[in-house]
Design a protein that fits this description.
4 helices
Length: 68
């Protein structure tokens, strides 16, 4: 199960299809060339997400990957 503290590197390594979702949601750090992207929560917060939006993003990721 993915959570707020999951590293984006780990997420896209295991679920590369999530790159599109993150980019569609505005978490475009995947294209900026940074070698380390940090956590889902950290990257989303840098893009202006509040806690509720971060939680919604994590929930959507888990739904798409079929996590229980």
């Amino acid at each position: 199960m993915i959570n707020r503290d999951t590293l984006i590197e780990d997420l896209v390594r295991e679920y590369p299809e999530m790159v599109r979702l993150l980019m569609d949601k505005g978490v475009r750090c995947l294209a900026c060339g940074e070698p380390v992207w940090g956590t889902i929560a950290g990257a989303a917060a840098e893009k202006g997400f509040n806690d509720a939006r971060i939680d919604e993003l994590v929930q959507e990721i888990n739904q798409r990957i079929g996590a229980q």
